[in-house]
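User: Predict the structure for this protein chain, please.
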Amino acid sequence: MALGFAFWLLAARLFPPEDVGIAAAAIAGVMLVSQLSVFGIESAIVARYTEHEHRRDHFFSTAFSLVALAAVIVAVLAAMVAIGINGDLSQVVKDGPLFALYVGMSVVAAVGIVLDQASMVLRRGDHVMSRNATNGFLSIVPLLAMWPLASTGIGGAAALFGSWVFGATAGLVVGAWQLNRLEPRYRYTPMLRRSLAVTLVRTGFPNHVLTLTERIPVLVLPLIITERISPNATAYWYAAWMVAWATLVISRSMSFALFAETSQRGTDLAASTIKALRGSLLLGGGAAIITIIAAPWILSLLGPDYAAVGTGPLRVLVLSFAPYSVIMTYTAVCRGTDRLREATIFGASLAVVVVTATTVATDGGLTWVAIAWSTSVLAFSLVAGIRLFGIVNPRAREFAPESISS
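Assistant: Here is the predicted structure, written as structure tokens:
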């Protein structure tokens, strides 16, 4: 995350806000495409690896091939939608080099998501760390190389986006090298084993739907702001959200650990839930206080306009850390106790409300967009909190079904 911030810090110093906004919207579009393309296969790898370990090469190669093919298809469909809307985002797909980078990055991002989970199931989480470090450092290198050209106006959004693609591709190359060095060695071969593909999609899709309800609002917001306000506004929003996410990601990280823990039999559900929620609130609260105080200084590193426009939205966004923690904890418990249908209905409802509220709020500017986001999260956290208590409270569970099957 620190390297990501350094990337945008340099981008803001080297490029005008319009170019930064277009590149940010393109990157948000890529992240959306990659999330739509994985079909929950990253979760299915974790769930099904043990039973397919004897044919690991076919298992992994089918997973990587499947998401790569899906990413190309989804990226082209998304480009057609952007052309149909014919707004500022159409600049991405009408620019030949930028469109090629956009499709390529969609594949790289989707495969990278699955590769991370493959490393985890192989008990090599250190590989994920080293790949992300490579990605971050090598995204910055092209920007540093373009520093002497900054005053000439050469580059634009395509150069900025290309730097991001270069770093991500380098990380993927490192991932392939890491897998090839494992014992037994693995080398990717393009293939689609029908039985394996069916198993992966059938296992992953229920979790995929739930994940999309969580992530789509975040990924769609920069696109909405680009179309309804301006690319400049997207640049300011993206910077504010990036800093706010350093606080909000704490609760998401805690929820990942809680999901893994509650998936195991014999776990004390109440104790684990309280521990995760307490950690989210304590760490998130400390980060939120620091961010609220230091917001103008942090954003001023990107430029005075970023601080002037983004400070208000940033402060409002980090105030949602507590209700967001409750929602993430509730979702993790639902995943771990096989309540996917319940969590998906909740997540879809929240996504619709957030997207609708923030779209309407764009008429008032970025601060009102942040208010709409935080208010929506707060309202749904009350529902999540009540339901969470009902699930983890032993007395309440005595009168409730053990689980709601997905």
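The chain has a mean pLDDT of 82.
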